[in-house]
Design the sequence.
């Protein structure tokens, strides 16, 4: 019976007694009233205006004003707090081309309101076009009124256009034809109003008329100028000749088909003998004008920009011992200029085509211990110049910043900065 040995088959004894009791009551606990957890709602805190301005300033691109306008107009719609901050940046650079533009600007900068004063004071630069040929053109008096609303204005750009009889204006007329159009002198009331306005430091004046005295009228207004850019019709000495221009200019940029006279430049720069630092020419000046300016200001010049450089000009460049920046657009004549430069030059810029001799440039990059930046404008096959890779390598080994562009406008923009 080995199989059944695992089980006990005997009958159990039934004489055991058990005491069993049951408690059928249901335990009750005191019922508590349901409670709702109420979370106190906190109002979101506002971002400080200083932080908002810092964010907008960081996003603001001084080189791309149009993109800024799109961004800032969107930011101005976010909330009331953001609106004023965005509008202040929108008003940093203003363009006025018509009476309707002026009316909108005058309404926004009404100085009887705090907001208007804030927006008016936010204007840093203004560009105005005085073109009587355009319907609803901006008048001289309203232009002057707009300037007086901007107490912190530093830079002013003015385009002056001559008048033609109705129907005779031709879109796209060559500059030489446009500059033969007569233009009225600035109104005395407008000049008087401008004198009550801000003390600007930079004036850019493009004269597309035959009025050669308009620039001297404007120069009589501002005695605080540090930078002057003039182009179009070459100016003449005021008649009768009055006291020399009182400003001590630091920068002069010119763009004329025909250079102004040496006498005019003597009058203009009479008080700039110890201050003029930068000379820039977009078009070839006359040899007499260029050599006069270099001889008169060689001891203070630190920056010089030329369309080209003849051997005669190169010979007088060695007088400019303080020169730190030199830019020559012409691809052939730059090596000629480079041989005569001070060894302390820090930034050189030049045009490069497939015929440019690069040996002088490479030697300067290798041995000039003060050189920090090289800017190259590629022209007419310059991209495939056989020594361009050598220039890149030499700059990299020396730790010199190399900037290359094929757009002359970008090249000139670098010069301006």
Sequence:
């Amino acid at each position: 019976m080995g199989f059944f040995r695992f089980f006990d088959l005997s009958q159990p004894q039934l004489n055991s007694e058990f005491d069993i009791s049951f408690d059928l009551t249901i335990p009750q606990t005191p019922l508590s009233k349901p409670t709702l957890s109420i979370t106190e709602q906190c109002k979101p805190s506002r971002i400080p205006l200083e932080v908002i301005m810092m964010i907008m300033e960081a996003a603001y691109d001084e080189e791309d004003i149009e993109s800024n306008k799109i961004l800032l107009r969107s930011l101005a719609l976010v909330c009331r707090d953001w609106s004023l901050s965005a509008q202040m940046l929108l008003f940093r650079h203003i363009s006025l081309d018509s009476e309707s533009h002026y009316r909108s600007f005058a309404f926004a900068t009404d100085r009887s309101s705090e907001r208007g004063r804030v927006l008016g004071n936010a204007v840093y630069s203004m560009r105005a076009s005085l073109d009587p040929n355009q319907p609803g053109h901006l008048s001289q008096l309203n232009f002057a009124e707009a300037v007086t609303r901007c107490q912190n204005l530093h830079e002013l750009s003015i385009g002056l256009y001559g008048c033609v009889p109705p129907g005779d204006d031709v879109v796209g007329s060559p500059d030489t034809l446009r500059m033969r159009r007569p233009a009225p002198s600035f109104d005395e009331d407008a000049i008087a109003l401008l004198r009550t306005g801000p003390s600007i430091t930079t004036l850019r004046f493009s004269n597309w008329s035959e009025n050669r005295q308009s620039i001297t009228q404007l120069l009589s207004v501002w005695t605080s100028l540090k930078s002057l850019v003039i182009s179009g019709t070459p100016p003449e000495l005021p008649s009768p000749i009055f006291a020399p221009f009182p400003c001590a200019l630091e920068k002069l940029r010119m763009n004329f088909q025909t250079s102004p006279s040496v006498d005019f430049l003597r009058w203009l720069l009479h008080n700039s003998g110890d201050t003029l630092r930068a000379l820039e020419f977009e078009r070839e000046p006359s040899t007499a004008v260029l050599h006069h300016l270099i001889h008169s200001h060689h001891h203070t010049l630190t920056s010089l920009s030329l369309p080209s450089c003849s051997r005669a000009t190169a010979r007088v460049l060695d007088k400019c011992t303080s020169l730190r920046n030199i830019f020559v657009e012409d691809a052939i004549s730059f090596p000629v200029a480079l041989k005569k430069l001070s060894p302390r030059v820090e930034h050189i810029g030049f045009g490069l085509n497939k015929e440019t001799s690069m040996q002088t440039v490479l030697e300067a990059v290798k041995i000039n211990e003060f050189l920090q930046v090289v800017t190259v404008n590629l022209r007419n096959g310059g991209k495939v110049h056989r020594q361009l890779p050598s220039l890149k390598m030499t700059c990299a080994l020396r730790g010199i910043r190399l900037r290359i562009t094929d757009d002359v406008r970008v090249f000139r923009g670098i010069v301006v900065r």
User: Anything to note?
Assistant: DSSP finds 16 helices and twelve strands in the chain. Residues 277-417 form a domain with the Leucine-rich repeat, LRR (right-handed beta-alpha superhelix) fold (CATH 3.80.10). Residues 1-18 have pLDDT under 50 and may be disordered. The CA atoms of residues 157 and 204 lie 4 Å apart.
